[in-house]
Amino acid sequence: MAEADETRRDFLNRLAAGAWALSVAPACAPPARSSGFDASRLPSAEDVWDWQLWMNSLGPRYTGGEAHATFVEFLARSLEETGLTVRRDGFRFTRWEARRWALAVSDGSGGGMVETPVASYYPYSGLTPPGGVEGDLVYGGRAPDLSVPSDVAGKIVYLESPTPSLDFARWYAEVGALPGAAGLPDRSKSAAAQTLSAPDLRPFAEAGAAGVVLGWTDVSDERAAGQYVPFSRPFQGIPALWIGPTAGERLRASCAAGGRARLTLEGALHENTPTDTLYALAEGETDEIIIVNTHTDGPNAVEENGGLALLALARYLNQSPPGMMKRSVLFVLTTGHFARPYVPSIGGFVKAHPDLIERTVAALTIEHLGALAWESSDDVKHAAPADVEIGLAISARGALSALFLESAREEAFEPVVAVKPNHVERFFGEARQLHLAGAPAFGYIPLPEYLLAEAPHGHIDKVDKHRLHQEIRMFARMLHKLDGAPAAALRR
């Protein structure tokens, strides 16, 4: 295992040096019918890009918010226009919304408060009055070795929160890759990993602290900006903000000098907020089902645009001759990915529809499409069509990974890597609950650095129109292969 984290650019340069090859044993692939794939039945790249631009224009689409509801209704209406009957699983929850945030700090020398740049807020943390909350600064430690100071009541606590490395070498066994030299780095550092490691703030709330500031320590200010992390925690009961490493150094010094801070996080709690999961069945000739799923909520242009792929595939089936698909295709577009403690996303669908899961012979989960790679330092940002995010595919079933790699090869789509998780907790994304329910599940889940980050432009500059459409073509090919393979073979 590498001692140091491999940079994404080093990784991509290593990929470029490899020859085109399919490093997966052919015996893993189940026998399948001739694909029958016809790209002319898909919406054009321009049509899909128009959907992408419109979706992005809505802004962040967090669970149950107005922008999210607008997007869900667009998907429902568009699916119905393909001739499908759209059904819904409805949920209600208390939605937390941030509207304005700010941080001002004094250095302890007797001077006034100085505005300090804020990277983002801690979702579902807490809220303040318009004037914020003010208190003495106190240092609470560096995660994971945190302590609640004994005299924390009424104070603003500063916590340092390093970004954990993604230990790919320990988490996954590689199944195959395109090109043959492709592969995940042994270890990689990503801002999105704070979702796994960010501190639980409830002990500080219970001790009476007025607020918490969390500092990024090992990513640049640009990489820290806008990160909606962690997105999987219940309401914390205390307002909290994130700051980048530059501001963090100043805040640590202010703690030591007896400084004070004023933390503002205005917003609202919306009780009884409705939000819907959509599902629609394209009937085939047998009772067997192929699930194609994604989620509909997210902060930017990539997270989550999988619903656009499902809409394109539904139109593809609608334009295809009767009897082309032997199996039925169940499109599932879930809500709740960004409010997981309150809205169960795909896990809720699995629980509510055991009859459909029982009929499922394969599940294809599609997330985070068209992603370009992005690196940043304190003075550099980069995103270019030559630098694409690796197409990470996760499945415990070697047969599904083999069919994916065949589809990618036919579409000349690369770089991609298919892996098998060594533990179910590393089966990231919306495919995991389908796997746990016993369905042969496959998840396509590229993990760009900006995956969980808000931005004024939604990071639309890091989405490639042609790669997005190429991924959709690849999944149409894979859908044919899943339809033609024997059910028993798909479980291998």
What is the fold's blueprint, element by element?
Blueprint: H1 8-16, H2 45-57, H3 66-81, E1 86-105, E2 114-116, E3 120-121, E4 133-142, E5 145-146, E6 156-160, E7 165-166, H4 168-171, E8 172-178, E9 188-189, H5 194-197, H6 202-206, E10 211-215, H7 221-224, E11 240-243, H8 245-256, E12 260-282, E13 289-295, H9 306-318, E14 328-334, H10 345-352, H11 354-358, E15 360-366, E16 375-376, E17 381-382, E18 391-395, H12 398-410, E19 416-421, H13 432-436, E20 441-444, H14 465-484
Parallel strand pairs: 4-6, 6-10, 10-11, 13-14, 13-15, 15-20, 18-19
Antiparallel strand pairs: 1-2, 1-12, 3-11, 4-5, 4-12, 7-9, 8-19, 12-14, 16-17, 18-20
Organism: Amphiplicatus metriothermophilus
Protein name: PA domain-containing protein
InterPro entries: TAT_signal
Describe the protein:
It is built from 14 helices and 20 strands. With 492 residues, it is α/β, with parallel strands linked by helices. It has two domains: 309 residues, 3-Layer(aba) Sandwich (Aminopeptidase), CATH 3.40.630.10; 153 residues, Glucose Oxidase, domain 1, CATH 3.50.30. The strands form three sheets. The chain has a 16-stranded mixed β-sheet that branches. Strands 7-9 form a two-stranded antiparallel ribbon. α12 links the parallel β18 and β19. It is elongated, with a radius of gyration of 23 Å. The N terminus is likely disordered.
